[in-house]
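We were asked to recover a plausible sequence for a given structure. The inputs and outputs are reproduced exactly as logged, with field labels preserved.

PROBLEM: sequence recovery
POSITIONS: 524
GIVEN STRUCTURE:
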């Protein structure tokens, strides 16, 4: 599979639907004849278009999709859904045109109609959604893992992968565009999937990628500094996430109170919500007020054990093969989501006990890539100050020797978080290796310089700080400095298998590079 252009999953046996009926049911103005025209799919990208598709021509940041209508027609599109400006651009394409004011706003409902995946459709799986700054992917994988332990065929849509039962494909966006989302759901239904965990980004809500879906349970993990390139300030970023807690998107909600933004979600949500808080991490007031509470009972570099206590005093004690209190918070959130969906806490407990705890593999989330001998090496997807604090803090707690942090920062993404990321990294590590991540169109040397400046702001300075480019050299350097008992945390790349350098996705795997560096150093 080419990870630079992973496939879009669609139903294998779509049922054609008459386009004239779509126009009639949605009351759409149209040009060109719709007589006998049947539609089997929807896309907003000519790169993914299949014969029989309705092509949605939307105004993007760079171009208007309708200008590619002739190409869409050549590739077998049966019609174009666009706005008046798009209709003009597509005049020579020969495609019938369905007119709407805002095609992006129409895309969810139209896709739900074409794929029969709207909220009132038959045989839809149970739908779970998770939003928040950190922990969406982790919570979604944990939720999917527990659902599997409960014996259900599952689906997953995350930053890392999409799953349909045992089928796995690499993801492009965290949350796919609405047309892809509905196609994926239709494919899941075809594959007998009974429950789906979906990760919903703030951008997905802003760009209406989950329109036409009503999740049975939605969840909020936390909010902290990120994405202030896409949103003017934290308030605007918060408001984008809050959309998931509207009746159009969720029936019931579970809110984690570990950051103070959780309380805001509870106050402003328009659906019934329950709350969960972690001892020692939520404020005392929020911990006391929470309906569900989480206490860490035992922690090691190999697992975390916790107790989840419900509103009526019922409790569940379990463990997960993950490091850090935040992963226990994510697991607890997943369990409360299941209870809100109607699963019995006792049944969940029994299924987990039978397996000795939660079974979940989280690709590139504090993933240990080292073997029995030598330093412990973890590859992580963290790219925000809060993620660094929690992940580095957890690794440090279980490291008898020195903690070595390797990281870079995304180019062309929220530059305002770079100083704080570097400050936190310096504060909590013994050795800092500053390197490159995805430079995109920025100068990597100037990103590194900003990170070095940020690191100098830390009160506690690492024993050693290095600036090493490119990252394959940086991980070699880190491994060369490490001894038995030391840990290396390489934060940023996580599961990803490419680097974006000037718009080109260069194949690259931090996990493989870290293993190769260990091998070269004789630790394999
Ligand atoms: C800001 C944003 O969300 N941009 C999305 C948008 O791109 P765009 O507006 O630049 O599109 P454009 O290039 O102007 O093209 C306009 C239209 O013409 C179509 N087109 C264009 C060229 C062509 O040859 N054929 C064709 O059909 C495009 O598919 C598009 O529909 O429409 C594209 C098509 O769906 C998306 O891939 C793209 O996401 C980009 C890649 C992106 O990086 N988005 C980020 C901000 C994002 O959404 N991130 C979040 C979460 C991240 C996190 O949590 O860390 C996510 O959910 O992934
Ligand atoms: N509940 C949490 N609180 C704080 N940090 C967390 C939490 N859960 C995970 N993290 C850390 O945040 C980083 C990203 O984790 P994860 O991929 O699960 O989050 P995400 O919300 O999916 O992120 P993204 O939106 O970038 O995909 C990792 O470093 C992880 O260790």
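RECOVERED SEQUENCE:
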């Amino acid at each position: 599979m080419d990870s630079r252009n992973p496939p879009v999953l669609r139903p294998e046996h779509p049922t054609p639907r008459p386009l004239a009926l779509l126009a009639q049911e949605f009351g759409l103005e149209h040009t060109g004849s719709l007589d006998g025209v049947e539609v089997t799919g929807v896309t907003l990208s000519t790169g993914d278009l299949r014969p029989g598709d309705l092509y949605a021509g939307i105004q993007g940041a760079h171009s208007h999709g309708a200008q590619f209508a002739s190409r869409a027609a050549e590739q077998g599109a049966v019609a174009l859904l666009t706005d008046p400006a798009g209709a003009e651009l597509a005049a020579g394409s020969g495609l019938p045109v369905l007119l709407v004011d805002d095609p992006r706003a129409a895309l969810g409902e139209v896709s739900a109609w074409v794929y029969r995946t709207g909220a009132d459709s038959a045989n839809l799986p149970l739908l779970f959604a998770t939003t928040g700054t950190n922990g969406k992917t982790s919570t979604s994988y944990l939720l999917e893992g527990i659902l599997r332990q409960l014996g259900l065929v599952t689906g997953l849509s995350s930053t890392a992968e999409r799953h349909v039962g045992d089928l796995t494909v690499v993801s492009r966006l965290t949350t796919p565009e609405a047309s892809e989302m509905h196609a994926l759901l239709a494919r899941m239904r075809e594959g007998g999937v009974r429950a789906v965990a979906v990760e919903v980004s703030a951008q997905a809500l802003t760009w209406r990628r989950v329109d036409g879906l009503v999740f049975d349970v939605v969840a909020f993990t936390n909010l902290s500094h990120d994405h202030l390139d896409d949103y003017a300030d934290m308030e605007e970023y918060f408001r984008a996430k809050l959309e998931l807690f509207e009746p159009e998107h969720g029936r019931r909600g579970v809110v984690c109170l570990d950051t103070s933004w959780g309380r805001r979600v509870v106050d402003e949500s328009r659906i019934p919500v329950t709350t969960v808080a972690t001892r020692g991490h939520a404020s005392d007031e929020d911990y006391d007020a929470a309906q569900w509470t989480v206490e860490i009972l035992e922690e090691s570099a190999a697992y975390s054990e916790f107790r989840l206590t419900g509103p009526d005093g019922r409790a569940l004690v379990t463990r997960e093969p993950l490091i850090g209190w935040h992963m226990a918070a994510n697991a607890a959130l997943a369990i409360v989501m299941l209870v809100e969906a109607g699963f019995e806490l006792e049944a969940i407990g029994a299924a987990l006990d039978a397996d000795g705890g939660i079974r979940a593999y989280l690709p590139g989330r504090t993933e240990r890539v080292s073997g029995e001998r030598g330093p412990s090496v973890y590859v992580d997807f963290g790219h925000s100050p809060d993620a660094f604090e929690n992940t580095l803090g957890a690794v440090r707690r279980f490291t008898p020797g020195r903690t070595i942090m390797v990281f870079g920062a995304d180019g062309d993404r929220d530059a305002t978080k770079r100083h704080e990321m570097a400050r936190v990294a310096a504060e909590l590590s013994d050795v800092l290796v500053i390197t490159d991540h995805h430079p995109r169109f920025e100068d990597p040397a100037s990103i590194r310089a900003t990170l070095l400046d940020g690191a100098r702001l830390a009160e506690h300075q690492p024993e050693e700080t290095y600036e090493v480019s490119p990252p394959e050299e940086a991980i070699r350097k880190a491994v060369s400095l490490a001894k038995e008992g030391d840990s290396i945390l390489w934060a940023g790349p996580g599961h990803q298998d490419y680097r974006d350098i000037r718009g080109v996705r260069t194949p690259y795997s931090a996990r493989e590079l870290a293993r190769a560096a260990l091998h070269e150093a004789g630790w394999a």
